[in-house]
Design brief:
There is one protein chain. Helix content is 53%, strand content 10%. By secondary structure, the chain is an alpha+beta fold. It folds into 2 domains: 245 residues, MetI-like fold (Orthogonal Bundle), CATH 1.10.3720.10; 124 residues, no CATH class. Helix 2 crosses helix 15, helix 3 packs antiparallel against helix 11 and helix 8 runs antiparallel to helix 11.
């Protein structure tokens, strides 16, 4: 057989061989991708039952339903914010860790969240964002910073006895109904003090009369186990230290004092004839931190959890691209007088542009499909405010009001949103292949 005939036989058999190898992959692609897409487009033109043809009514509802419009707005926020921040953090981490000896260990720690599933990450951050500072890490830190610069109320929620001779003011303060008299002690019994705030206080001491001065005691008028006389300092009742008291006359504060460790206070002779006032700052509820999972902050909080997971992914890819950057170019820029910031901005970042493009495009596609974190982290009261298209697709298709026609329309909308990003990515890959 001639050489030409042999070549013809090989050429003719190659398409068949290629088809044999591609057939399983094409079958899977058709069954898992092409058919579901086609069926979703077809199903989007029918009603909830799947029997009645409704045309473009489902698409009209997609853009008129308030829940879906909120989900679309949140998706825009996700696409604009999350990929950019994750890529920026990854770039900073990759550049900085290249210069330190423990860079590998740092990269390992930053990349470690990628080993955690979205479900586990959602549970972790649901606890991190707990409103109670004793349970939520975010609010524990936030409250700690706040309390460093702003004094908290010593006894939040406390108030006098109804028959204690003090009346509530509109601003939350309490003022005595009778005037103070020099040499006559003024007892100030309080109740409803939370145990953790009174714990560790000394026993209260009855006030001692001092000529020409107004004295008194502020204490927790409660005896453990019952007993005691209301309005009188009984043995074992706790003093309330750090309470500010004021003597007020004609709307003006003429004297003030703070209770000591035994609950006693002393006002000068100027307080004679005035009324005793306990400012509202003594009883204001303590700062509880930010409402991370409230309607306002729920989406930024969930984006923060996403960045915690995916910044390591961006860092690893960028670090790999950074390893291929020619060091001669960086050194040449430094020799020409460029400082480190100029080298980073004018040389490093442009050389890393292809890698940064890969990272951003990958994360954009990923956030358009975000579902797990939103569903797990957002509480039921804030879920409508944190809604995204993938979550709305699930709720419309399988929630309480099942409408798979509407869910299919949302799926088609997601496909339309993802297609431009995919096309850009394919063109970029082809362009890189020609080089």
């Amino acid at each position: 057989m001639s050489t030409r005939a042999t070549r013809k036989g090989v050429v003719r058999t190659r398409p068949l061989v290629a088809a044999a190898f591609l057939l399983p992959a094409l079958a899977l692609l058709g069954a898992l991708v092409v058919y579901p897409i086609g069926y979703s487009v077809h199903r989007s033109f029918f009603d909830a039952s799947g029997n009645g043809f409704v045309g473009f009514d489902n698409y009209h509802e997609v853009f008129s339903d308030e829940r879906i419009r909120t989900a679309l707005k949140n998706n825009v926020v996700w696409v604009v914010v999350a990929p950019g921040l994750a890529t920026a953090l990854g770039l900073v981490f990759a550049v900085l860790t290249e210069r330190v000896r423990w860079g590998t260990a740092f990269k390992l720690v930053v990349f470690m969240p990628m080993a955690i599933s979205m479900l586990a990450a959602g549970i972790i951050f649901r606890l991190v964002y707990e409103q109670d500072p004793d349970r939520g890490v975010a609010n524990a830190v936030w409250v700690g910073v706040h309390d460093t610069f702003a004094a908290s109320a010593p006894y939040p929620g406390a108030h006098p006895r109804p028959d204690g001779g003090l009346a509530a003011d509109p601003d939350g303060a309490f003022t005595t109904t009778s005037a103070l008299r020099a040499g006559s002690p003024a007892p100030v019994p309080l109740v409803a003090v939370k145990p953790r705030y009174a714990k560790g206080e000394r026993d209260a001491q009855p006030p001692r009369a001092e000529p020409g001065k107004v004295t008194g005691t502020v204490w927790l008028d409660f005896t453990r186990g019952g007993g005691g006389t209301p309005g009188r300092v009984d043995p074992g009742e706790k003093a309330l230290s750090g309470v500010k008291v004021e003597a007020v006359r004609d709307g003006r504060t003429v004297a003030s004092a703070t209770t000591g460790a035994d609950g006693t206070f002393t006002l000068p002779a100027a307080a004679d004839g005035a009324r005793l006032r306990l400012p509202a700052a003594n009883f204001a509820e303590r700062y509880r931190g930010a409402e991370w999972l409230g309607p306002t902050l729920v989406t930024p909080s969930i984006i923060g959890a996403y960045i915690w997971m995916w910044a390591g992914f961006a860092m690893v890819l960028i670090a790999a691209g950074l390893a291929g950057v020619p060091r001669e170019l960086l050194e040449a820029a430094r020799v020409d007088g460029a400082n480190e910031w100029q080298v980073f901005r004018r040389v490093t970042v442009p050389l890393l542009a292809p890698v940064l493009g890969v990272v951003v495009i990958t994360l954009v596609i990923n956030v358009l499909k975000i579902f797990d974190l939103v569903y797990i982290i957002a509480p039921g009261s804030s879920l409508p405010d944190a809604n995204v298209l993938a979550l709305q697709l699930y709720q419309s298709s399988f929630g309480t009001a099942v409408n798979q026609g509407l869910g299919s329309a949302i799926a088609v909308l997601l496909l339309v949103l993802v297609l431009p990003v995919v096309i850009v990515n394919i063109r970029r890959i082809r362009k890189e292949g020609r080089r």
